[in-house]
Fold this protein.
Amino acid sequence: MTHRYRSHNCGALHLEHAGGETRLSGWVHRVRDHGGVLFIDLRDHYGVTQVVADPDSAAFKTAEALRSEWVIRVDGKVRKRPEGTENAEMPTGLVEVYANEIEVLSQAAELPLPVFGDTEYPEDIRLKYRFLDLRRERIHNNIMKRGAIIDSLRRRMKEQGFFEFQTPILTASSPEGARDYLVPSRVHPGKFYALPQAPQQFKQLIMMSGFDRYFQIAACFRDEDARADRSPGEFYQLDIEMSFATQEDVFNAVEPVLRGVFEEFGGGRPVTQKFPHIAYKEAVRWYGTDKPDLRNPIKMQAVTEHFAGSGFKVFANMIANDPKVEVWTIPVKGGGSRAFCDRMNSWAQQQGQPGLGYVFWREGEEGGAGPIAKNIGPERTTAIKNQLGLGVGDAAFFVAGVPSKFYKFAGEARTRAAEEMNLVDKGKFEFCWIVDFPMYEWNEEEKKIDFSHNPFSMPKGGLEALETQDPLTIDAYQYDIVCNGVELSSGAIRNHRPDIMKKAFEIAGRSEQELVEKFGGMYRAFQYGAPPHGGIAPGVDRIVMLLCDEPNIREVVLFPMNQQAQDLLMGAPSDVTAKQLRELHIRLNLPEAKS
């Protein structure tokens, strides 16, 4: 053997190697004692090989002492496994290595969590001992898949003529969005850098600089609370920007990249071929959310007219007293049983609602069944059934009020009903674009018009719309991409004209002085010939989470923080020395400890 540690890796040996000598190194995955013959599953990054030691082997005494996760070197002979002991599940399952010599390279202390198997363990233990957690097959495979997905994204972007740039990590604090992570400057006392929440201004400046198609697998930093689909601290996105591009150009550039990656890594599951465009207002009306899961076939409809002036006085009076009131229905195919309807009603009450009205249709009954059906009569009940395309064995649930106040609950009821009835097709990836986001919204707290989402989006209709339209009716060239109910990204065609930007900020009560103070670098660049440009930034972590079928983003990140934004492995955030604070001209003013 020429190499100190291995002639093959633990995933390399097959039948053609039988009869030859090998040297393997790896971790002891598990040891099984079968009547005095020891079977050692030896694991490395590449796979698992079965090693055998019996009392005739010179390595037997060492083999008897082995424990899980010890690191060993094994020299031995490759042989075909005896008839009936083959393991078709393992790539190396037709052979085994008869050990002649075993060298212990390092021992492992008693394990705080097992590496063999996939037992659920408390998250704090998993994160503190992440290096052990990462040895487990599922997590190890997720991280390798993540790397392959990023390679694929990068290759597909380059094939479309995009060039990769790197933007600064130490930059200026941004007044928009989430909280910044601040970095004190030693050489400029009292001043701070910020870690970028996104390379937004830099990628737009790259377009100002005359480059045409930018992308970057960008690290972004936001001081915000954790969620299942969002890591606290840092995350990665496929950051994209294009010059001389319309909204359609951005869609045409991004769709094949995402479709291709999901087809490549989605395990054969169908992927949407042409992503539908759904206006924000329609998404809210049909699905009760701007992040619709289109695998759920339920589409809500307004049925206000069928309740106006009806015998169901609760809804009829609401409609008569307020022109903004609407009645929406959640139609559920196959939901036509009182037991299901009662379960939905109980669920609504658990959500703090008075209940969830319903009608269901059953054989041989004119109109429909349920209290609402009795109140509005068979003619109106039949009209609702016909509008919704429902029949015997189906149900409809109703929500009434001002839609802006109830649409989220209606969307949750839609989701709940589909899950209860098992209507969601989990075996596919359903993409859509959500388009035409409102440029402005009414800020109830401050009693003023404010930006709805991104203040740097181009308003539809440009300067003319800003000067002549009610601001709350103006849409923006702003879009989200959604897959299976998960928002992968927001993007926009940018407002590249200083005059339009000045007017847009003025409507939101922001002065040109504020624009210059907070976004001076970009606003200045717009004075010197800015190309029309736009982009998007799909979240890499969320893409990987979907493709790995993981419900939590921490399952696809190498070294994630916990939900309190702590790195339990490295002990961050941590105290620093008085000397470090003095060099940074910082004195701590800590809150008093609670007694």
